[in-house]
Description:
Pfam families: Lactamase_B. Keywords: Hydrolase, Metal-binding, Zinc. One of its GO terms (molecular function) is hydrolase activity. Residues 13-193 form the Metallo-beta-lactamase domain. The protein has helices spanning 36-46, 60-63, 66-73, 85-89, 91-98, 169-180, 199-205; strands spanning 2-9, 14-21, 26-30, 49-54, 77-78, 117-120, 123-129, 138-142, 147-151, 154-155, 158-159, 188-191, 197-198. It is an alpha+beta fold. The protein has one domain (2-205): 4-Layer Sandwich (Metallo-beta-lactamase, Chain A), CATH 3.60.15.10. The strands form three sheets. A six-stranded mixed beta sheet has the order 6-7-8-9-12-13.
Amino acid sequence: MLKYRIIPVTPFDQNCSLVWCDETMRGAVVDPGGDLDRVYAVMKEEGVTLDKILLTHAHIDHAGAAADLADEHSLPIVGPHKGDDYWIQGLPQQSKMFGFKEARIFEPAQWLQDGESVQVGNVTLSVLHCPGHTPGHVVFFDPVTKLAIVGDVLFNGSIGRTDFPGGDHATLIRSIKEKLFTLGGDVEFIPGHGPMSTFDYEMKTNPFVGGQWG
Length: 214
């Protein structure tokens, strides 16, 4: 079964996640934006051995430390969708713009497509391509525990920004309604920032998409 710990990182309090299979204790880090010392501390506490890095998208606060983590632990970077390649190429510029430690450009070992899956130990995570915040944004979903890691697509009470290059509001709303909400209202999700929520709660109360469902 999938287990997880949320690890807030970077000055933006981005929800980096350590996820692992409790049968094998093999795991992955989702969206290592920075502060790898915090990630390593949680790995040690939980006794998790890393197999890979998973990226929802390539904004600096989600992908800024991916290259360092990959090098330090000889890990493949999996994701996001290739639509975010230009964000990866721009990581050094993003670093300067937001005052982060300089992030290095990398080449993912695997670009992800909608409908694919990734393994974390014995757990199979479904991949959903959910553009709108960025063109290549993906979401990871575990149908067994009904947990989704949605990055910056949807938040508790809000939605992702669409004013960055490649963002599109209508596309984002469509991703939320057609890709996420159709997974079921009882799905709990980890957003890229802020507290967790459920799709049912957001359908009913989120001012950006609540009341538009059904």
